[in-house]
Amino acid sequence: MFRVRFHGRGGQGMKAASRILGNAFFLEGYEVQDAPRYGAERRGAPIFAYVRAGREPINERGIIRHPDLVIVADDSLIPVPGAGVMSGVDSRTVVLINSEESPKVWKQRLNFEGDVFTVPVETADRAELRFIGVTCVGAAARLLGAIKRETLSEAIRQELASLGSDIVQISLSKALAAFDSMQAQAGTVTPVKTASSAHFQPPDWIDLSLEDARASAPAIHAGATSIEVRTGLWRTLRPVIDHDRCNRCWWVCSTFCPDGAINVDTEGRPQIDYDHCKGCMICVAQCPPHAIRAISEREAQAAEVEEASK
Amino acid sequence: MSRTLLTGNGAAAWGARLARVDYVPAFPITPQTEIIETIAKWVDTGEMDARMVTLESEHSMITAAGAAAATGVRVFTATSSQGLLYGMEMLYSVAGWRAPFVLVNVSRGLSSPLTLEPDHNDILAARDSGCLQIHCSTCQEVFDSMLIAYRLAEDERVRLPVIVNLDGFYLSFTREPVELPDQESVRDYVGSYDPETTLFRASAPSSQGVAVLGGGPYSYFRYELHLAARNALRVYDQVAGEFAGRFGRAHRAVEAYRMEDADIAFVMIGSFATKARAAVDRLRDDGWRVGLVRPRLLRPFPAAHLQRLLAGKRGAAVIDQNLSMGLGGVLHSEVASALYGQDGAPPTLVSFVAGLGGRDIADEEFFEMAAVTKRAIDKDETPPPRLLYTEAELREVRKLQAIAHVEYEQLRGASGANEGWRR
Amino acid sequence: MSETQSRAAPVSEAKVTVYRRMKDLPSTHLLGSGTAMCAGCGGLEALHEVYDVIGAKSIFINAAGCMTLLSVYPFTPFRGSWLYTAMASAPAGAQGVRDALDILKQKKRMPAEEDMEVVVLTGDGSAYGMGLSSTSGAMERGLDFLYLCYDNEGYGNTGQQFSGATPHAARTATSKGKHGFAGYKKDLFSIWAAHKPAYVATVIGAEPLDLARKIEKAKGLEGPRLIIAMAPCPTGWDFDPQITVEVGRLAVRTGVWPLKEYVDGKIVHTKVPHERVAVENYLKLQGRFRHLFEPHRDDAMLGEIQARVDAYWADVTA
What we know:
The complex is a heterotrimer of chains A (310), B (423) and C (318). With 310 residues, chain A is an alpha/beta fold. Chain A folds into 2 domains: 2-185, Pyruvate-ferredoxin oxidoreductase, PFOR, domain III (Pyruvate-ferredoxin Oxidoreductase, domain 3); 230-309, Alpha-Beta Plaits (2-Layer Sandwich). Chain A is built from 9 helices and 10 strands. In chain A, helix 1 (14-27) crosses helix 4 (149-160) and helix 3 packs across helix 5 (165-181). Chain B is α/β, with parallel strands linked by helices and 423 residues long. Chain B folds into 3 domains: 2-200 and 207-247, Thiamin diphosphate (ThDP)-binding fold, Pyr/PP domains (Rossmann fold, 3-Layer(aba) Sandwich), CATH 3.40.50; 254-387, Rossmann fold (3-Layer(aba) Sandwich); 391-423, no CATH class. Chain B has helices spanning 8-18, 33-45, 58-71, 81-86, 88-97, 121-125, 139-154, 183-190, 215-247, 273-285, 303-310, 330-339, 363-379, 391-403, 408-411, and strands at residues 2-7, 23-26, 51-54, 76-79, 102-107, 132-135, 162-167, 175-180, 207-208, 254-257, 264-267, 290-295, 297-299, 315-320, 348-353, 386-387. In chain B, the strands form 4 sheets. Chain B has a 6-stranded mixed β-sheet, with helices on both faces. Chain B has a 5-stranded mixed β-sheet with strand order 4-5-7-6-13, sandwiched between helices. Chain C has a single domain, classed as Thiamin diphosphate (ThDP)-binding fold, Pyr/PP domains (Rossmann fold, 3-Layer(aba) Sandwich). Chain C has helices at residues 42-54, 90-106, 124-130, 132-140, 188-193, 208-220, 234-237, 244-253, 279-283, 299-317; strands spanning 58-62, 81-84, 117-123, 145-151, 199-204, 224-230, 259-263, 266-271. In chain C, helix 1 (42-54) crosses helix 6 (208-220) and helix 2 packs parallel to helix 4. Classes of the chains: A alpha/beta (310), B alpha/beta (423), C alpha/beta (318). Chains in contact: A-B, B-C. Chains A and B meet through helix 1 and strand 2 of A and strand 8, helix 10, helix 13, strand 16 and helix 14 of B.
């Protein structure tokens, strides 16, 4: 049985991607299970999805602890602890990353012995984000080696039909290009046997003991603890203030920012809190002198790394 | 007949569509909402000849469902968790009306704390309502159970609402291949709804749901409800048998998987039971004589089926995805009461509570539950009930508690500090 | 009375009423006797008058209250049908029945003559409180139904605790203090009318002609039609059952209970008491207000109550 886990962000077409892959397997005659996994759906927040496909009816269910293939639609998720991208990955797992970086760089960064492949997707334009998933799935289909090119096309047509023929055409061209780009790596992913009951690590179950109701009721005993959540990690675009053009009408950007992530410094200049800015770009749209511009978060981070290394 | 990929929610909606329901009172709640969205779309396009009305609460929704069924139309409705509890008063009431309809509950843990993920406390809270319960483990089973449920509910020997239960996320949002029969064969199987005398007509005045005075008549009506629910066991076997004959898929009141020569049985309900099935296969590969017993019917409780399936076994591990506060697992206590004093009842019955609020049950945990049960059998000693909870999980909670400004002093338990906790 | 029970085309104006004078009221009555309601019940008086106009081609959907005990197995006074639901959701029960009847007619599984008027019957406890959300929902969905609230200004079936309908200063089982109930009667008429339903009216059994005309008018309309019947309650208000009608008439003549209707977006008072009787004449008949007169006359409170009634009518005549 193949076990494939997708990691991406809300808005990157992860659910559709998992469904395309699931349907492609199904059309190839496999038994299939596909599902998205999210809490409250939020654009930019980490989500994952999974696909299982095998020749026998599938009894496994829920999260995939030991994937054969991990698809990372957004390489900025890899360092996010809560995203769990590398969870349960071992040396025979294949990792496919949407990244401008080379597989070699990622193998090094992750200190990972298994196969890493990359498939770059243009993401500077936010409208392109939703095609990330379909591009990844094209590459993944080839790596799995179980899905024909025509089957992939058919699965895309079926799953995306409700979005209209334009979206289907763009998706097809992106997915098939990615499919073709992995020609040399066709069938790299090999499913492994499931856990054996003869040799397993027994779970470290513990006994919970009674604790004071003040501790054991779901109550938060302080205010504004949400500040500890780094929602800046949701951002794919970054607003940048050009302080030369800024005319310090901070009451505009700072009032309209829904997250309260624009504050005024001692000199009266608005400053963006990038730990919490989700990248909605309301400030860019509302700034009277157009002093805030949007840049790709990926490029911004790359520039920061370069700056730091100087 | 076509085989297609459907979520559990999609399968439920298809069941309502092919059963040709007339009326769908609705109210949105996660993770059920996709069911009513799907039906709303079909009603809009005319693919489904039904009327759908969004009420202002589940309490009203279930009232409208029962009232419409009592007026003589085929009714479908769906909810989940808090919604099922919000409508709980009416579940009891409409069952007493003896007005049949089908309600899908997409299981989700109950507040507090609030959660979106599944366990079975919601559906078990409806245990004593008079509504029958069918628990599903796959998307195919959800669809099939919808059709069986209409036959069961509307049968003149039963006449009770039936709840078809599926787990949130693990079935509701998970697609699996589902075989959909054509409309004609479903029509032949389910038939038309005959409200018999349960209807309101100008020419046939009827008063339903009326009060009684005194325990004598009250006991009579309530016990008749119980007898009808009991009778549903026999009727279930018949209508499910007919389903198997017609569509080739057997859905017995209790599924028995590799039980013939088993010494140890896992006993559990719902979608995680397929994980138990996978664990049975792995354990069998390694020489264990293990099987799975999965009640599909929970009300009526299939005690005789369980007695028969477990007779002569050495032990059973009952895995409850629910928690009755101050007792433990509900299924465990029900299985124990079914087996007590029965010839050949397994001498060892171990209780595990697992999967609360959607917590996964790992393969290794199934293996360990089998091992714990085996040790209990060998020592002839029943261990105390066990919550499947790891040290790593408690460490995660400790981190959350630190953010929530829970003070160390508050964490000290009545029986001393927790073993797993180091400041 | 005529037996044309199917929902007719809207009656254009009240002038076509068959109830021009008291003699036109029905002389034989549909609602069966033998019910468990208290002797002298003002609510039952209103209901039986209403029932004569609505007719037996009807189904009453009931919420928990005194009148739940109208139908106690195996007895019912209704010649038509009845469904008891729960305290909060009688309008939702009406939704289910109405929808089912419409579906059956539309799918030709029931002849049109088998259709019925769907009537919600609740007390003020349900109407003003627990059932308000489901009533609001039924109105926003434009449900074609009639709602009859018998308003005896308290949770009568449980021993007259105060409800959202209890008037200021009234003593109830849960407001036995020196000054009685501290709150004020909720304006349910306005809350209902704010939904812009087809029809809202206040009635009282003591004014049967006004009542009959309003039910007749409501019957001729389609959509949500809601009636509040003030229900003088000998048990809960503590007066001798023989004066139920007198108390009711005084409620109207003092201006405490304005008879009015909301139709086509306008509120019309159907009986304006030009020489309004002083409110204390109404209050002093009732034990629940005795503390305003004994052992000492509470002029301040009596003055306040009178002033509120005067203020209401000042707006009406303005």
